[in-house]
Design brief:
alpha+beta; Ribosomal Protein S5, domain 2; Alpha-Beta Plaits; 2 domains; globular; binds (3R)-3-hydroxy-3-methyl-5-(phosphonooxy)pentanoic acid
């Protein structure tokens, strides 16, 4: 096999968070989650596939055109995990070259977009499923999940649900599925502006953070709350109750960080400016009554989510009251939704 395939894949932001893994499998979520893809924050990945030269398959990985051998062990683990469903990987050498369209060191996790793009390109390289069909995307989502759980959700333009839930019969722990029902107009055109309050490395990785849920005193209650929140959020996406949407999304962000702060050992990824941005958003929302809220990933940066129909007023708020809290005034804006693309 001699092929070169390029995919670009969006990152995503969870509205109901995946935090904690189920036992008895690889990278299975303890609770279901749902996310919006971020069409303007992407990884673009080119995979060159060649018949293997040596006895074992060989991997070369480049980031932004430069060899990144330090990433290769993690990607090799990923390739081993997906080989049972992509057996051709046992017979080929791979050269994988990836780049993100957002700055490195912005403190933005790129693993969801990166593993999403790699999974799409590898499933395409196998050449069995027709690209963009449901079966193709499901297999790519399955593979992406084995790289990074949240990456499973990045292959869909529609809001993506990952993890079994009574609220959505098609959902699975093995792969994400798109929520294809009509979304109310008041929740269908939101934008994410990510305030980069701290571009440093996280003190605790997500992998270690997930593992701390194993012995966490509040784990079962948290998993139950996430399931309830997902159930309600799906109703809200249909009905357009923006106030409930905001309450669920902000509570999810704070619960995620509350779990970190109450893990043993405990830790904290929020920084003083994280809290300042949150306070400003609350105050602005009280004053303006506009549809705006925040969420957080496993990091200090604040995702400001808002209805893009109010772009002008909210841009003014960001410029005048939030940028002072951003490192070098940096923030990244993205529409929500957006599909992966074959290039
Ligand atoms: O995909 P991972 O293992 O990096 O976990 C990410 C978990 C959160 O980003 C904190 C939440 C989520 O659902 O994306």
């Amino acid at each position: 096999m001699n092929k070169t395939i390029t995919y670009s894949c969006p990152s995503n932001i969870a509205l109901v968070k995946y935090w904690g893994k189920k036992e008895g499998g690889i990278q299975l979520p303890a609770n279901a989650s749902i996310s919006w893809s971020l069409s303007d924050l992407r990884a673009t990945t080119t995979i060159q596939v060649q018949p293997k030269e040596g006895e074992n398959p060989r991997l070369t990985f480049l980031l932004d055109g430069n060899p990144k051998p330090s990433f290769e062990p993690k990607i090799n683990d990923f390739l081993k995990r997906i080989q049972p469903v992509l057996p051709f990987l046992g017979e080929v050498d791979l050269r994988i070259s990836s780049q993100n369209n957002f700055p490195h060191g912005a403190g933005i996790a790129s693993s969801a977009a990166g593993f999403g793009a790699m999974a799409l390109a590898l499933v395409d390289a196998e050449g069995i499923l027709e690209p963009h069909t449901d079966a193709f995307l499901q297999k790519a989502s399955y593979c992406a999940r084995l790289g990074s759980g949240s990456a499973s959700r990045s292959v869909y333009a529609a809001p993506a649900i990952w993890g079994q839930t009574k609220a959505f019969a098609a959902a699975s722990d093995e792969y994400a599925v798109p929520f294809t029902e009509p979304i109310h107009a008041d929740l269908s055109q939101w934008t994410d502006a990510v305030m980069i309050v701290d571009s440093g490395e996280k003190s605790v990785s997500s992998t270690d953070g997930h593992a701390l849920l194993g012995e966490h005193a509040y784990a079962q209650a948290r998993f139950q709350q996430a399931q309830n929140n997902l159930n309600e959020l799906l109703q809200v996406l249909r009905s357009g109750e923006v106030a409930r949407f905001i309450a669920i999304v902000e509570s999810e962000a704070l619960q995620l960080h509350a779990m970190m702060m109450s893990s043993i050992p405990y830790y904290m990824l929020m920084r003083p400016h994280t809290l300042s941005v949150i306070q400003e958003i609350w105050q602005f929302r009280r004053e303006s009554q506009l549809p705006i809220c925040f969420t957080l990933d496993a990091g200090a940066n604040v995702h400001v989510l808002y209805d893009s129909r109010y772009q002008a007023q909210i841009q003014n708020f960001i410029d005048s009251r939030l940028l002072v809290y951003c490192q070098n005034g940096l923030y990244l804006r993205s529409a929500t939704g957006g599909s992966p693309e074959k290039r």
